[in-house]
Amino acid sequence: GAWIGGNIDTTAAVTAAGAMAGEQPLQIASIVKVTQNALLGVVAVLLTLFFAFRAAPAGAGSIPAGSVAAGSAPAGSSPAAPVAGRRSLGMLWGRFPKFVLGFLLASVIATVLAQSLPADVLEPRLDAAKELQTWALTLAFVSIGLEFNISSAKEAGWKPVVVFAAATVVNLLVGLGLALLLFRNFTF
What we know:
The protein has helices spanning 2-7, 11-21, 23-55, 89-95, 99-116, 119-147, 150-156, 159-183. Helix 2 packs antiparallel against helix 3. The model is unreliable at 61-85 (pLDDT under 50). It starts with a helix and ends in a 5-residue tail after the last helix. The protein has eight helices and no strands. It is an all-alpha fold. Helix content is 72%, strand content 0%.
């Protein structure tokens, strides 16, 4: 169950695979997947901070101190880009994945509605929201497909495929190792 929850991407697929494995694996798979989902926002913030302050080269995409780019702000006003090496909250905001905030907002709204509305009023609204979600995901994947460029995939060659395959194998092995280590004495 822990291996299923840690290695399958979507919650629905984790639930289906866990149910096929049995009631106890389903419970463990669900716990692991919900934990991953809950930590998504925390990891997104930590990765944003890491890449903003450590991994990004100092001054990347910025104007050297004391100079103003051609066609930018007049002398005496602040330039459009930050000063080299200077870190700012604006830079963090620009790099932060905004979908995390939407996810948190939707979670808060769903929790408040679930606590404040009776089930007979809430259920039709949840069904409508699920229908809207299905359409939004469909449009998102169609948009991704429309952006796909075969020539750039050919140009990239097999290297991305090999990297993805290697990462998948490592994820499977590490996930199995962690599942065995963390859940070896787990009983119901």
